[in-house]
Amino acid sequence: MLVKRLLILVPLILVVFLAQSYLWVPSYEEQTKGNPARLTRYITGSIGDAAILNPILSSDSASAEIENLVFEGLLDRDKDLNLRPRVAESWEIEEKAYVLTNPNSSRKPEDVLSVLKEARKERFPSFGSVKEVRLLPPESVNCPPVYTKEGKRPSNCVIHYPHRIMISLSKVEPELTKEIEELLGEDFFKDFDLDGIVSVESEVRGEFLQRMKDEFLSLIEENPVITFHLRKDVYFHDGHALTAEDVKFTYEAIMDPKNLSPRAADFEPVKDVEVVDEHTVRITYKRLYSPAIGTWGIGILPKHLLDKKALEEEARRKGKESISIRESDFNRSPVGSGPFVFVEWKADQYIKLKRFERYWEGAPNYHEYVFRVIPDPLTQEMEFYSGTIDSYSVLPHQVERLRNDPNFQNFSGRSFGYTYVGFNLQREPFNDIRVRKALAMAIDVEKIIKYVVYGQGERITGPFPIQTPYYNHDVNPVPYDPKRAVELLMEAGYERQPDGFFKKGDKRLAFTLITNSGNDIRKAILAIVQDYWRAIGVDVRTDLVEWSVFVQEKVGKRDFDALILGWMMGVEPDLYQIWHSSQTGPFQLNFVGFKNPLADELILKIRKEYDEEKRIEYCHRLHEVIAQEQPYIFLYCPRWTALLDSRIVIMERSEDGKIQYRNITPSKTGNYMYDFNKWIKLREKSLLLDRG
Amino acid sequence: MVKFISKNLYQRAITLFFVSIVSFLVIYLAPGKPTQVDPLNPKFTPELVERMRKEFNLDKPIYIQYLLFYNDLFSGKLKSWKDNQSVMKKIRDRFLNSLPLFILGTLITWTISFPIGIYSAIKRGSFVDKTVSLLSYFFISIPGFFFAYILIVFVVKVFEVPVIGMNTFGLEETSLLTIFMDRVWHLVIPSFLGATGGIAILSRYVRSQMLEVLDNEYIRTAWAKGLSPDEVYYRHALRNALLPFITMFGMIIPGLIGGSVIIESIFSWPGLGRLAYEAIMARDYPVVLTLNFISACLVLLGTFLSDILYLFADPRIRL
Questions:
Q1: How far is CA B138 from CA A82, B115, B133, B144, in A?
Q2: First-to-last CA distance in chain A?
Q3: Residue A122 and residue A128: Cα distance in Å, rounded?
Q4: Which chain A residue's Cα is nearest to B177?
């Protein structure tokens, strides 16, 4: 019977054909040990793929990982978190201040000039850094261009300045405005019509005019000025030299509303970017804003590939009317000036980079860098054991397994973030600090760290990342003291009922603690905290909410009692968005509703202070204030973990040309990838590098 | 005939229209916004969030959004919110990746289930039949991801060859045949995994169909005529038992777009299932809706095809 034979033969042939394919596949052995090229190739495994490879557009960590290798900023942070020159060789921060003279005042501009010139340094310390005081004649200046939906356009308004006095300072003096006001006396600016000096040439909407005034008009204007001197030996991967024009272009691309750059807020305080010469760029700020310098770590884009002309060319090639940077193919085949050159991106499979031979600091030791997307943690681990990937997003318990294996080296360090329990301070009972304190005292944080994150966390007491100097180590954590917690609740007017729960009047002390679903650690903390609170007599309910509902409905609309959440922080100690009282509106980030005048003042002072020591002092004070008020129960700063083959070491060339090897050591701040460009994988484990 | 087909198509078009409305509503009424508009990220100022909403037309009334969406879909201008890539291109790329997996999976399922099902029907009650039943229930009830892990660990430990991805990573300078065979190898385990459940169910189904047919009187007549067992089983019984599978064949077409999120994630397979899953997690509506719409089309197409096939296969239905 033919049918019968077919029914037996077809599956048989299929199975044999499929099975024999096994014979063609290279084994792991051939791929790793039998392949010398494998030693010069670094392969990392990632759960998710990158979204868009453009430093001004991306906001996900996978994209950032690649961008950091392909692009390079003017500066970055070194091992101790200090700024380190990169594309910019050096920079100076100076200040220019402008004081308007009041035409209605009895004092002539020349008199004002001499008052400011003769200010004594002893009484007015800011004047110690004055380089020059000059009188400017009255002049009319076009308002700076504005960015609208269509792009940059002239603003069609003119400011008619009266006599102005320009003061140049060799460094930024945050107290200058106050001292000038003191010098000139309160009456000096009386009757001065600030709005009157702006004339509008064509129709400009009222709202827009107001914005112009807010941004550009003040009686005393303080403009910090940063001058960057760029290296002369920096090239993009296509051979073009990187110049000041590219820096200016990057800034303009970020500010162009069409590009919807998530970095726009960082660069909003910039007043003007001026190209002084090919390798010098001068950035003037509208106001004192000390976190500004750190923002120049952003990767510099090549102007010649993304400017209007290049985009029009691309649009023509694709047969479209116009395209924006967001739509450009550049984002999928980026060209930067970093140590690695982009080669290929296969969506959800891998991204390949190769080293840039002309990199100004010398080409990296690894010839190739590959970013492989492996969405499953278990298969990632299998690939790692087999040697086909060099690193992966390893979890603490996976590290624990290999801690003593001589074939692997492991690292762990503090991450820039923390986990906390936040209270809605606008609601009962959290508006009472005694209740907040009592709730904090009822939780044994050390135990949470030990059992929930396997000890991979550190107790914290305040809002700054623990490895930065801004963190105040003198603030003591709230002790675990359930007895005192009960006393505090009694002091706050609560009475214990026979059923063990607290009551005030006829209202029970009851609320709901929420967190987002999908995070097992937070879920575990949720249950533990509930248990601790119930143990002292607080009726707590819990709820897990899907992330976007959590953000939109609960946090965004302030509809919660207490929540468990975490923040990822930057190095800059700017806490304005999270802690300033002006940020308590819907969908703003001070969702706990923390309002404290002293904290507000300190937050603004930190933003304006350019002197590092003073900044640290203010931060320590702010840390204290926030810790005292307990709007959050600060739990812990999680530690990241990493695992590498122990054959990977740092290879350096000493001055006499000899090659030297040394072990990878994590920096003080816990970044083990810091020297990545010097990493290499050895063929065999060297005895010299015995870790003992 | 023509009347039947045109009426059938007309009904399906109406269904499709309602599906488009309902799926659009479901997505838009679901809480949550695209992750690109993340208000909990300090870098996203309210002003920027507002601008993004405008850019994505999220500020417009819902019926306008509906019209804009389908207008973009049909004119091919639709772009993913996540990376500004063309949605159609994304889906096409992923579809081509998922296709071999789908074809091989279907091939394995259908070629293996039939002999197994027929054999256990013929040898009903025998040791083999009982073993096959037990195994079928085992494979139906074992969770896919668990089975996948066991299989991967087994293959990697015993054979020491890579199994994940579409091909062996870093295999470049080699003959075309090796590349082809390497790809086949990488297909084997995921498609086998995808097929196990199908084999278990389908072979049970074949078995019961065969048994039902074998009970019929015309089979007794065939035996009485003195035909050989092969003639009875394969000519008289099998043909009649096959009829219901025509409908099933139509129903596998929507599987083209489904893919399997779990298998694709575990095996790092850049297929459609993963695309859909990631799009849902990122609230990338254009991708989610387009996939939704395409799969609705495929379901309707599949049922349409089985209707037509029935017309040809079953002489009892004639128009």
A1: 61, 19, 9, 12
A2: 73
A3: 8
A4: A24
Q: What confidence score (pLDDT) does residue A210 get?
A: 66
The label of the residue with tokens 């007015």 reads A124
Give A140's strand partners: A160
Q: How confident is the model over A412-422, as pLDDT tens digits?
A: 888 888 999 99
Closest Cα partner for B164 from B143, B147, B185? B185
Please, which pLDDT band fits residue B32 given cuts at 50, 70 and 90?
low
> Would the ipTM clear 0.90, i.e. be above it?
no
The separation between CA B161 and the C-alpha centre of its own chain, rounded to angstroms, equals 28
Instruction: Give the pLDDT means over successive 10-residue stretches in chain A (692 positions).
Output: 86 91 81 76 88 87 90 88 90 90 79 83 84 86 64 68 88 86 77 70 60 70 92 92 94 86 84 91 90 90 92 88 86 92 90 92 90 88 84 78 79 88 89 90 91 87 90 90 89 86 85 88 92 91 85 83 89 87 82 90 89 91 92 91 84 80 76 82 62 42
For residues B174 and A319, give the distance between their C-alpha atoms in angstroms, rounded to a whole number: 38
Please answer yes or no on whether A21 and B275 come within 8 Å at the CB atom.
Answer: no
Residues A565, A547: Cα–Cα separation, whole Å? 11
What's the rounded Cα separation, in Å, for the pair A323 and A317? 11
Of the candidates A24, A327, A347, the beta carbon closest to that of B270 is on A347
How far is Cα A270 from Cα A283, in angstroms, rounded to an integer? 7
Which residue, chain included where needed, has tokens 């159609």?
B88
Question: Strand, coil or helix: what is A651?
Answer: strand
Torsion angle (degrees, nearest 10) of CA A173, A176, A178, A183? 150
How many angstroms separate the CA of residue A369 from the nearest CA in chain B? 12
* First-residue to last-residue Cα distance in chain B: 6
Query: Phi/psi at B17 (nearest 5 deg)?
Result: -60, -45
Tell me the C-alpha to C-alpha distance, in Å, between residue A620 and each of A458, A594, A596, A599, A626: 19, 18, 16, 11, 10
Q: Which of B268, B285, B287 to mutate to test the interface with A (most CBs of A within 10 A)?
A: B268
Distance between CA atoms of residues A654 and A663, nearest Å: 15
Contacts of B233 in chain A (CB under 8 A): 4
Domains and CATH numbers, chain B: 94-313 (1.10.3720.10)
